[in-house]
Amino acid sequence: MNKKLIKVTSIVTTFLMMAAPLCACSDKKEVTSDSTTTETTVTETTAETTIPDTIPTNTETEPTEPISDFVVNPLTGVMDMSKDNEGKRGIGIAVNNCQVANPSRGTSEASVIFEYETEGGQTRMLAVYPDVSRIPLLGSLRSGRVGAVDMCAGTGCIFVSWGSDTTAVPGHVRNIGIDWIDINNHIYDYGHGHTADDVPESKYCWYDSDWKTQRSQEHCGVSRGDFLLKACNDYGFDLNQPMPELFRFVEDGTAKMTDAEPCTELNVYFSATNDDAFFEYNKEENVYYKSQYNGKPQIDLNNNVQIHFTNVFVLYCPINTRPNDTSSEKHKDIHMEEGGAGYYVSNGQIEEITWTKPTPNDQIKCFDKNGAEIQVNAGKSYICIVDEDYYSKMTYTA
């Protein structure tokens, strides 16, 4: 786990005895710089005071507490989270990922992203942030699915979506006891594009004014941290609950990987609709950059940054069209409770793993070939939840 070391500076006090008779007095002066604090005290003297042979000094070190504006982010294992957010819950929010809804906004600042298959072979993302108040302008937002609820539940976060699979999500949320905000009930000015400055406090989301002229309306929904924080408060959700550490994090680059092979390129097959979730390793930065849809870099439109991650997980489990689903959507059920095989990719290497998540509220646990829980390099993670039928379609190169 990355930690910042803060030097503790001794306070050195020097007593200077003055030769000339002085009336009783005292003075204290503090001089500060970037690295030290020196305190000088002139003590009381009398006419009988004489200069000693030596000047007494106090060189004892006073213990001080390390000071930092950041604490360890339980989603990354990195000291990159505001101290003000320590011991609080974050948010997992459903984000569109179909081709016409790219590029997205705000995804480069997520600590974790899950990608998963929905109806028609399209994929969506669950973007997870530790600090609700600091979520950037984010979108396009999309409706929730049961699988996304389960992914979010395991992180300890509040689940947010723009609508839902009404045949299953509301009941499932009640059954597992997760906090959920459907911001579809709080849209500002349905049908028209706006900026955040236009939106009143009573609303939590809106249609992006730029996108509204370029895309169909269903791919234009956005929100932002200050609005989402207000939504949490209005719903009465308690944010003062600590999130569990997502994985067994170790300092970046030090994770011990079992029977690992080199991996500089990785292509994950989700479906015939999205068959090229591509990750390319940058050795200098020690991260994997993501592309998709015929090799296009996956960009965050807020800052024009290609999203990238220290860790990539590919986790396989049964994914099926829901039995007896008479809706036109043909919703998918993701059976994460069955766990399965998978891969962990980091630091230019890949290892085979197995994983478990017995109940929706359980965390994902990953294990090496010997059955030991794996170490994970501290940093952001991209987690691909893939149909086990496509296990043989994933490829990687050294």
Task: Describe this protein's structure.
- This protein folds into three domains: about 70 residues, no CATH class; about 160 residues, YerB-like fold; about 150 residues, 3-Layer(bba) Sandwich (YerB-like fold), CATH 3.50.90.
- The protein is mainly beta and about 400 residues long.
- Strands 7, 8, 9, 11, 12, 17, 25, 28, 29, 30 and 32 form an eleven-stranded mixed β-sheet that branches. Strands 18, 19, 20, 21, 24 and 33 form a six-stranded antiparallel β-sheet that branches.
- The N terminus is likely disordered.
- A hairpin with an 8-residue loop joins strand 18 and strand 19.
- The chain is about 5% helix and about 30% strand.
Looking at this protein, list some descriptive labels.
single chain; 398 residues; mainly beta; YerB-like fold; 3 domains; 3 helices; 7% helix; disordered N terminus
Quick overview:
With 398 residues, the chain is mostly beta strands. 7% of the residues lie in helices and 32% in strands. The chain contains 3 helices and 33 strands.
Task: Give a topology summary.
Elements: E1 13-15, E2 27-32, E3 37-42, E4 57-58, E5 70-71, E6 81-82, E7 91-96, E8 112-117, E9 123-129, E10 138-139, H1 146-153, E11 158-161, H2 169-176, E12 180-182, E13 193-194, E14 206-208, E15 221-223, H3 225-235, E16 249-250, E17 261-262, E18 265-268, E19 277-282, E20 287-292, E21 296-297, E22 299-300, E23 305-306, E24 308-309, E25 311-317, E26 319-321, E27 332-334, E28 340-346, E29 349-356, E30 365-367, E31 376-377, E32 381-387, E33 395-397
Per DSSP E runs of 2 or more residues, the count of β-strands stands at: 33
Q: CATH H-level name of the largest domain... which superfamily? A: YerB-like
Radius of gyration: 27 Å
CATH fold group of the largest domain: YerB-like fold
Question: Biggest β-sheet: count, sense, barrel?
Answer: 11 strands, mixed
Count the helices. How many?
A: 3
- Based on helices, strands and strand pairing, what is the structural class? mainly beta
Count of domain modules: 3
Termini, distance in Å?
27 Å
What is the general shape? globular
Strand content: 25-35%
Mean of pLDDT: 87
Percent of residues in helices comes to under 10%
Low-pLDDT stretches: 1-63
What is the CATH C level class of the largest domain, in words? Answer: Alpha Beta
CATH architecture of the largest domain: 3-Layer(bba) Sandwich
